[in-house]
Write a structure and sequence with these properties.
mainly alpha; 10 helices; 2% strand
Amino acid sequence: MNLGDIFLSEMVGTALLLLLGAGVVANAILPRTKGNNAGWLAINWGWGLAVFAGVLVSYKSGAHLNPAVTLGIAVSGADEFVAGVPVDAASISVYMLAQLLGAFIGAVLAWLTYKKHFDQEAPAGVKLGVFSTGPEIRSYFWNLVTEIVGTFVLVYVVLSIGPAGEASGLASVNLGWLGALGVALLVVGIGVSLGGPTGYAINPARDLGPRIAHAILPIPGKGSSDWAYAWVPVIGPLIGGVAAGLLAPLTF
């Protein structure tokens, strides 16, 4: 395994994640779709299945799909991300860049899929909501807390997979097929339980990459990309991921 393979695997997996994840939001909230008004639970399940698909196709890289997961593994004391790929600054950078680029690509593909629906008249916030998260009650500190807690749960449970499959504890973490189902259900659970305040980004790349796409794409009536809020779904998940990574070796 080399860093080029890691980059391609993570980019493709994250692109698929965002295509399906942004796609279910578009189907649920954009005008004149078959799934219009499908509701929050449908969005939660759609994101869970998006994670399932993304993890399956990016098994070669360990299927992080999320800078918070990458950082969580890095600070947990793991020796390798996957066999032959040591935890170091170079590999961390490759994972994160691939995740951000993949998220951007996936968001663009979702826009292309729903292009005619984005062209319909709809509130600017609805169109932005397909791409990125936003709080129901804007309070930056408490929104940050929500993202920290949700991401902590995600990364802490993901890290629990490592000791189950490795005699050396946190030597490496690879989600694989069984992990794909478990993490998919976990994402659904986080959304149902903790996603109400902010829309549960729990992934910096998932929010930032599509927000950049929203800013660039020629979407009629799209309004602002809400950059004033954009730091919350980046910083919060990173803090939550690091906290989970630091606690994991003490408890597993």
